[in-house]
Design a protein that fits this description.
There is one protein chain. The longest helix is centred in the first third of the chain and has 17 residues. By secondary structure, this protein is α/β, with parallel strands linked by helices. 54% of the residues lie in helices and 13% in strands.
Length: 335
């Protein structure tokens, strides 16, 4: 069954029916007038749109009055401004994801110099935040997406956007073992935000849990490097590598017997750790790998340490076994 992402962040089955502060973003100084055109990213028309092009004539309605309902960002830009071309798409993406929690009005500074003078806009891009009819915050320069999100989070008092709520629902389904539901939720999110690395990682983890290793591998290999190297995706990739190794290991009882018969059989101990992890005993798997590191750190090109890194990545950095395991690994390596 397919699912859709509702405006409130829930999912449902799909049916047929202030003065600006320097943001350290290399803002460009104001320059003389340049020919006017639509904002760098374009803007949908209509009074209900969350992103608009504005001017001094529409400022009262689109910014002052609108900000009494939801916060409004005002993006002052110009056609000649390089940093503006970097910032505006980021603003549009984050505001769109907020799904109504905040609005964006883009104003061509060259065509609205009187308005710029009233708000003391001295460099571009400059972004003002209006709330309850008043300017309450601002920044200059092309901030990265993470800082723009933090700016909006502060402005909206930490209210969660529908996309963030859906991500939480997907993770909750994954944690509960409802892998098919999780896969549908993450796919719906990714359909709306194709570069969302958290959703992509969720898709991969759900596919791994469902035994869809070939499908997960296909997605992973098709990802561009800027997404492939994201922490969430790297962690899912480690989980995929471990899942592929499971089929190559034997029965843990037999492997345990081999290790007890010959504690120096490093390959048997490594295979035992993989078999244990595959059967859900992550703690015992970590114990065996740490013992292997203690016995021979360099064996097989540091295979035990590398396997531990895969396990930690798969569990996640905040997992209690990861935290304690990394501490124990450091103790062994530097003892």
């Amino acid at each position: 069954m397919a699912f859709i992402l509702n405006p409130d962040g829930s999912t449902a089955p799909k049916t047929d029916a202030a003065q600006p502060t320097d943001g350290q973003g290399n803002g460009a100084p104001m320059a003389p007038g340049a020919p006017g055109m639509a904002g760098p990213g374009g803007a949908p028309a209509g009074d209900g749109a969350v992103i608009k092009d504005g001017n001094i004539q529409t400022f009262m309605q689109d910014v002052i009055e609108a900000s009494k309902e939801v916060p409004v960002l005002v993006d002052f830009w110009a056609t000649w401004c390089g940093p503006c071309k970097q910032l505006t798409p980021v603003l549009e993406k984050v505001v769109t994801q907020a799904a109504g929690l905040v609005k964006l009005v883009k104003i061509n500074a060259d065509e609205n110099q009187d308005l710029c003078a009233q708000l003391r806009v001295q460099s571009l891009p400059t972004v003002y935040a209006f709330k309850d009819g008043q300017p309450v915050d601002a920044f200059m320069g092309a901030l990265p997406e993470s800082q723009v999100k933090a700016f909006i989070d502060k402005l909206t008092d930490g209210a969660k956007a529908p996309l963030d709520q859906a991500l939480e629902q997907g993770q909750a389904a994954l944690d509960a073992g409802e892998n098919e539901l999780a896969l549908e939720i993450f796919k719906e999110i990714q359909a709306q935000d194709q570069t969302n690395d958290t959703a992509i990682a969720g898709i991969l983890r759900a596919q791994i849990a469902l035994g869809m290793l070939a499908e997960a591998e296909e997605i992973l290999t098709s990802l561009p490097s800027n997404i492939r190297t994201k922490a969430d995706v790297e962690s899912a990739a480690s989980a995929l590598e471990l899942a592929k190794e499971v089929g190559e290991t034997g029965d843990p009882v037999e492997l345990r017997a081999k290790v007890e018969a010959d504690p120096k059989d490093h390959q048997a101990r490594l295979d035992l750790s993989v078999a244990l992890f595959a059967r859900g005993d992550a703690e015992a798997a970590i114990d065996e790998l740490l013992e292997l590191v203690r016995r021979d750190k360099a064996w097989n090109d540091e295979a035990a340490r590398k396997q531990l890194v895969k396990v930690f990545d798969t569990l996640g950095g905040a997992h209690e076994l990861t935290v304690s395991g990394r501490r124990r690994l450091s103790s062994v390596l530097f003892s």
